[in-house]
Amino acid sequence: MGGATVDEAKERLSAAEFHEWLLYREKHGSLNAGWRIERLLAMLCALVVNRTGGYKDGTAAGLADFLSYQMPDHGLSIEQAIKQWH
Question: Does pTM top 0.70 for this prediction?
Answer without folding.
Answer: no
